[in-house]
Target: Cyclin-dependent kinase 4 inhibitor B
Amino acid sequence: MDFNANTLCCASARGDVNLARQMLQSGIPVNAPNSHGRTPIQVMMMGSPQMAELLLDYGADPSVPDPSTGTCPTHDAAREGFLDTLLVLLRNGANLYEPRDNYGQRPIDLASPDLKAKLLLLGYR
Model:
């Protein structure tokens, strides 16, 4: 298999941690964009905190905005309610209150009341 940014993004989107690890170990840059201009952390399976941890361990930028919407992975995790992935992102430099996406929304603005309550209980204000 020919490894490149597109194949790394595909593995990230599928949540294939083992294949993504193999590609990263082979030297594929973790922040290299695919043919659509998105990085692996932007397209990763949000329900896989293990994928988030792997990409972040290799130096992925958790605050890189989507080229078309301005959303960051934190926006996506908050909007979809993936608390475990959101916590991984927050522990690695992401922020609930910035940046704003192209619609003026912060990640916290997209979180459900239930997710906001859980974050508050965990000490995130």
Remarks:
- Residues 5-14 form the longest helix (10 residues).
- The helical segments are 5-14, 17-25, 40-43, 49-57, 73-80, 83-91, 107-110, 113-121.
- The chain has a mean pLDDT of 96.
